[in-house]
Amino acid sequence: MSHHTEVASQPAQFFKKGLGLGEQIKSQLTRDYHSGLVEFIRANGHMIRVGDLHFHLAKEFGFCYGVDRAVDYAYQTREKFPDRKIFLTGEIIHNPHVNRRMLQMDIRFLFGQYAEVEGYEQLTSEDVVILPAFGVPHNDLKRLAALGCILVDTTCGSVLNVWKRVEQYARDGFTSVIHGKYSHEETKATSSQATKYPNGHYLIVQDMEQADKVCDFIWGRWPRAAFMKFFANSISPGFDPDEHLKKIGVANQTTMLSGESLAIAGRLRRCIAERFGEENADAHFRTFDTICSATQERQDAVIELVRQKLDVMLIIGGYNSSNTTHLAEISGEHARTFHIDDAACILSLEAIRHQPVSHREEVIAHEWLPSGEVRIGLTAGASTPNNKIGETIERIVRLRGESLEEWMK
User: Fold this and answer.
1) Counting beta carbons within 10 angstroms of the beta carbon of residue 363, is it exposed (0 to 12), middle (13 to 18) or buried (19 or more)?
2) Are 319 and 346 in contact (CB under 8 A)?
3) What is the DSSP string of 157-212?
4) Which residue ranges form the domains of the chain, and what is each CATH number?
5) Are 130 and 152 in contact (CB under 8 A)?
């Protein structure tokens, strides 16, 4: 049963596959997000040389199918309902430029940093609500349906696949152990799928260190009170670790590091096998790799790119984008890497404003770009529009006193 058929009262209208206006809004999307320069580089082996500057673009980068679709549906919604109030439950994707564009189109936000007023109380049955690519928690969907709002669902298909897995675990009496960030919109929506069932439970672990703590409890090496305190924000209501860690199923936020998700699943399975015996492991443990293919492809492409001898690597995208920060994390292990929001972060040939992995604030780095011949790698998170990559290249070229035109013949 899908998550939609569970909704008790149906909204006035529920659009799940667009609004049939794709052709009408195509030119707007091209104007707002397209880059001729990026298309040129893609068509020329993902490389361009401009004087002493050698730019290398990752094989996979930028908008994924799910993000493309979510943005497309938002534009279609504005086109279809020109006179209605339109709201997003939260950020449509984790990119500030795209979210600010939504505000310019008079699409308002119900929650988060872009909301003028927070909460569902401001809605009426006349309003249109767009559900973002991350999805929304099950109870929020029920509430919106009960209000009678027109709903436009842009939830990504990869996210829906994880939901199905979590629902299946809950139905079969398995607790979902979700590798993700408990405060992330996607993880909130995913974990809520478990609680649709009376005995459904979840536990969210952010990394291997937290997975080890779960193993310590299962092995009886860590007291219950300490466990409950540590995971207070990351467990379902009524969670009883003595009871609910006997049968576990692993799932993940689709944008996590896939290697880490697989390693966590492996660690938890070994723990369960030791606790209940290898012959009983399958009765107590399930797993399914639910990292989205676009996330995986972008991670693989970064690894391939940074194996070349690059002088500097630029990762472009929102700082609160999970998949983008993971690209910066991977790249940083192999090359001098800067995660920037956009071209404006390049202050000069000498200074760059960026956000290091695991930092919450931007810092300024100096002497970031060597003089003379320089090889620059670039990629962008799945929520970054192509024009942000193009603008970054153009800015570096301009600062170096070069012109793109003669090199794009």
Assistant:
1) exposed
2) no
3) HHHHHHHHHHHHHHHTTPEEEEES-TTSHHHHHHHHHHTTSTT--EEEE-SHHHHH
4) 25-63+294-407 (3.40.1010.20), 65-154 (3.40.50.11270), 158-291 (3.40.1010.20)
5) yes
Angle in degrees, 0-180, between the axes of helices 208-218 and 258-276, rounded to the nearest 10: 10
Indicate if 209 belongs to the active site. no
pTM above 0.90, yes or no: yes
The one-letter code for the residue type at 240 is: D
Give the phi and the psi of residue 395 in degrees, each rounded to 5.
Answer: -65, -45
Structure tokens at 270: 């070994």
**Dihedral, CA atoms, 131, 133, 135, 140, nearest 10 degrees?**
-20
- Angle value at C-alpha 153, between 196 and 86, nearest 5 degrees: 120
- List 91, 167, 186, 260, catalytic entry: 186
Residues 230 and 205: their CA atoms lie apart, in Å, by 11
CA distance 233 to 243: 19
**Element housing 337 (H / E):** strand 337-340
CB atoms near residue 246 (< 10 Å): 16
DSSP 55-95: EEE-SS-S--HHHHHHHHHHHHHHHH-TTS-EEESS-SSS-
User: Which pLDDT tens digits describe the chain residue by residue (409 residues)?
Assistant: 344 444 445 677 999 999 999 999 999 999 999 999 999 999 999 999 999 999 999 999 999 999 999 999 999 999 999 999 999 999 999 999 999 999 999 999 999 999 999 999 999 999 999 999 999 999 999 999 999 999 999 999 999 999 999 999 999 999 999 999 999 999 999 999 999 999 999 999 999 999 999 999 999 999 999 999 999 999 999 999 999 999 999 999 999 998 999 999 999 999 999 999 999 999 999 998 888 899 999 999 999 999 999 999 999 999 999 999 999 999 999 999 999 999 999 999 999 999 999 899 999 999 999 999 999 999 999 999 999 999 999 999 999 999 999 898 7
Contact in structure between 288 and 329 (CB atoms under 8 Å): no
Contact (CB, 8 A) for 48 and 41 = yes
Among 16, 254, 62, 261, residue whose Cα is nearest residue 158? 254
In angstroms, the CA 283 to CA 147 distance is 42
